[in-house]
């Protein structure tokens, strides 16, 4: 943000024209911030996430989880010690760095809902 020169930023093989583009490339879209928001306080299993976001399709949730995992924001832990298979999602240390941003987005959403909706 400090450097106003025109240069591309690279992250995980993708190029972005500026820092905001990079940020939105990582957490943008309808569901990624919602997933991150629900993982702020605790680990959740896939079905627990689905219950928190009942309008997301299974395919979309799976794709968004994979994308967040690939980008290093969430961790997928598989427990196989006893059936049934258990999978939990949680924020990584890198993912925790986005928590203040996610909380700010949530606060702004509350403000809009209170003051600017008809």
Structural commentary:
This protein has six helices and five strands, in the order ββααβααββαα. With 118 residues, it is an alpha+beta fold. The longest helix has 17 residues, at 99-115. The chain has helices at 19-27, 32-38, 46-52, 58-70, 93-96, 99-115, and strands at residues 9-11, 14-16, 44-45, 74-79, 86-91. It is globular and about 50 Å long. It has one domain (30-115): Winged helix-like DNA-binding domain superfamily/Winged helix DNA-binding domain (Arc Repressor Mutant, subunit A, Orthogonal Bundle).
Distance between the termini: 36 Å
Fold-level CATH name: Arc Repressor Mutant, subunit A
Tell me, briefly, the overall form. globular
Give the fraction of residues assigned to helices. 40-55%
Write down the Rg. Answer: 16 Å
The major sheet is characterized as: 3 strands, antiparallel
> Could you list the spans in which at least 5 consecutive residues all have pLDDT below 50?
none
Please state roughly what percent of the residues sit in beta strands, choosing from under 5%, 5-15%, 15-25%, 25-35%, 35-45% or over 45%: 15-25%
CATH architecture level-2 label: Orthogonal Bundle
- Overall structural class, as computed from helix and strand content, comes to alpha+beta
* Spatial strand arrangement across the major sheet: 3-5-4
Determine and state the CATH class: Mainly Alpha
């Amino acid at each position: 943000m400090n450097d106003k020169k025109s240069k591309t930023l690279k992250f995980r093989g993708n190029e972005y024209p500026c820092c905001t583009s990079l940020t939105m490339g990582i957490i943008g879209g309808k569901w990624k911030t919602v997933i991150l928001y629900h993982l702020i306080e605790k680990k959740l299993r896939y079905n627990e996430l689905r219950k928190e976001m009942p309008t997301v399709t299974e395919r979309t949730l799976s794709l968004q989880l994979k994308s967040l995992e690939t980008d290093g924001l969430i961790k997928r832990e598989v427990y196989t010690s006893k059936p049934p298979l258990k999978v939990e999602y949680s924020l990584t240390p890198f993912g925790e760095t986005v928590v203040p941003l996610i909380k700010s987005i949530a606060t702004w959403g509350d403000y809009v809902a209170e003051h600017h909706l008809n």
